[in-house]
Amino acid sequence: MLLPEMLTVSNVAKGYGGRTLFEDASLQFNRQDRLGLVGPNGAGKSTLFKLILRQEDPDEGLVTFQRGVTVGFLPQESAPIGEESVLELATSFHDPGTTSDDYHFYADGPAIAKAKRLLKGLAFRESDYERPARELSGGWVMRAHLARLLVQEPDILMLDEPTNHLDLETLLWFQNYLRNYAGAILVISHDREFLNQLVTGIVEIRNQRLYRYTGNYDTFLEQREAQQEQQLAAFKNQQREIGRLMDFVNRFRAKNTTATRAQAKLKQIDRMEKVNAPEQAASTVDFAFPQPEQSGQRVITIKDVDFAYGDHVIYSGLQFEAQRGDRTVLVGPNGAGKSTLLKLLAGVLVPQSGERDLGLRVKVGYFSQYRTEMLQPQRTVLEEASDTPARVTELYIRSLLGCFLFRDDDVFKKVSVLSGGEKTRLALVKLLLDPPNLLLMDEPTTHLDIPSIDALVAALSEFIGTLVFISHDVYFIRSIATKVLHINAGVLTPYAGDYDYYLEKTKASSARVALTSASTGPGLSNSRPDTGGRRGEARPMETASQKERRQQAADARKALASQRKHVTQLEGQVTALERKQNDLANELESPTTYATPGRALTLNQQLRSLAHDLDKATSEWEAAATRLARMESEFKE
Predict the structure, then answer these.
(1) 8 Å CB contact between 625 and 226
(2) CA 14 from chain center: how many Å?
(3) pTM score of the predicted model
(4) How many Cα atoms within 13 Å fall on the side-chain side of residue 194?
(5) Residues 280/235, Cβ–Cβ less than 8 Å
(6) Among 318, 322, 315, residue whose Cα is nearest residue 303
(7) CA distances from 211 to 27, 28, 312, 501 (A)
(8) Closest C-alpha among 455, 450, 515 to residue 487
(9) Residues of the chain with pLDDT under 50
């Protein structure tokens, strides 16, 4: 029987060319763990994977596995491929510790049947099974490799950005499959919602070490913020105390009568266990959109547009208009026409009939989902960035590239060798060098790490132009969108509110599922726009069951708010008791306390009583916080 500890990283150090990535880094990985690995670009996430996979050796320390543990690895891109068919690839196994493209194949029926089920879940058609895998695009090859790993069911499944090559419906299938996966999972992902739904712990790489947190990604952010605030407060308190002691030393060390006491103060400082200041985050993307010229109020109009791919009609009589300052996210099922609408707006596709009319002073910028459409692979990073109509100097271009982590010799890399994240960052640089006032973005967060997504959100929040975009990143959508446009079967249904407003109107089961829903929800017509309930407009009647569900949701929200308030109150009580305990302990340690007869005894009695109260309050807070976590998981806002 296998023990719980399957993998141990012990005091590992690793560096390249004088740069230290890890120093005294440790991690224990247990059976049934589902851990997300996070950290900014260059922190060492991929290097840690290589150390675990034994593709590289640590400079110091050990990486050890329990005997018999199997490991499966899905790289971010460019997994090996030979002459096998899709089904053969899905029913093969490959040693992740080698660079060989050689595969061994399973011949048994159960493995083949399982592979077919998994390929179907990953959106392959039966006609694809016998196709040579090398005929597929890179994204579909990665899906076939993902099926291969799931057929094998390794004890530890290691995934590097597994959602990058998945459409949203497939992502939801994959997410649900992993929830029931029998082994342990270690995943690198920029997708907060994916991490929130899947992982039970986060491992953060920060300043050459590994820090483990319990809970999903949102919980990790809360814990880290609280931890840093506590550490900063403790650091400041200790620095004040050290300053007070040094004032005494500086005033009295030169006097014979007080030199001994001054020396004792110095020893007291030396004996202190020093509290370090909170560590600063590693460098990440930092930029702002240069504000473009202001357009007219009406930005773009699509009127009576017909568009089809051959005999496949996407739109008939399409009508669309965007006003200055709109931030509209396009949602709806796969194949509904979201990317097609974006390309029609960009002028990339020409309709069979109808009009596309730009408003006054409108300048269009199109950010394609396929970065290769925007970049020339044979150019260097600097050459590609320099290909701009804007009158800017090379110094300015290199400065902007530096903001996107292209530094020193990085600017001479060929575009063809860039990672997915680097291509996305370079495409953003090109937009910033010639800023549009109508920005059309198709999956802009793909391949970006979480700090880079935060930087993009911050930049777009200040953008004064008009934005129409597609994304399956719920956090990004909630942060940016002020309007939602649902698209299905050529029908556009606008919602005059942000994404949470859309969720409320459609009564969606979850924020992720609502992105690909074919339905516009109860109480709303597919052909009738939602206007936010303005006076004078008829609204459909709600059924009794709809009213009951709405009341249940309202009651759940009320109970959740009450529980959150209760937890906050208990946290305040615990904090007050801890503060009082600290004050009493400081007083007990003060020499002046013992000048008052009986005071030390009184303080000890108060501290014992306070310790009992603190234990009780802490237990109440833990129970309330546990109940809150359960309520939040049951109630999807």
Answers:
(1) no
(2) 26
(3) 0.66
(4) 32
(5) no
(6) 318
(7) 8, 11, 52, 37
(8) 515
(9) 1-3, 522-529, 531-544, 636-637
In this structure, how many other beta carbons lie within 10 angstroms of the beta carbon of residue 358? 17
**Which residue do the tokens 């992502």 mark?**
171
Distance separating the N- and C-terminal Cα atoms of the chain: 42
Give the whole-angstrom CA distance, residue 434 versus residue 422: 19
For residues 218 and 199, the answer to whether their CB atoms sit within 8 Å is no
Taking the C-alpha atoms of residue 475 and residue 617, their distance in angstroms, rounded to an integer, is 34
364, containing H or E segment: strand 364-367
Contact between 368 and 374 (Cβ < 8 Å) = yes
Report the candidate in 470, 469, 400, 463 with the shortest Cα–Cα distance to residue 437. Answer: 463
Three-class DSSP category at 131: coil
Chain centroid to Cα 508, Å, comes to 22
- Both tokens assigned to 182: 């029998």
Both tokens of residue 479?
A: 């942060």
Say how far apart CA 148 and CA 503 lie, in whole Å.
36
Close Cβ partners of 107 (under 8 Å, ≥ 6 residues apart): none
What pLDDT does residue 59 have?
A: 94
What SS3 state is found at 348?
coil
Asked if residues 187 and 37 have their Cβ atoms less than 8 Å apart, the reply is yes
Distance, in Å, from the CA atom of 504 to the CA atom of 251, rounded to the nearest integer, reads 67
* Closest to 428 in 3D by CA, of 456, 451, 407, 450: 456
Write the DSSP symbol of residue 277: P
CA 479 to chain centre: 13
Place of tokens 């060929």: 414
For residue 414 the two structure tokens come to 């060929």
Q: How far apart are CA 561 and CA 632, in angstroms?
A: 10
C-beta separation of 302 from 340 below 8 A:
no
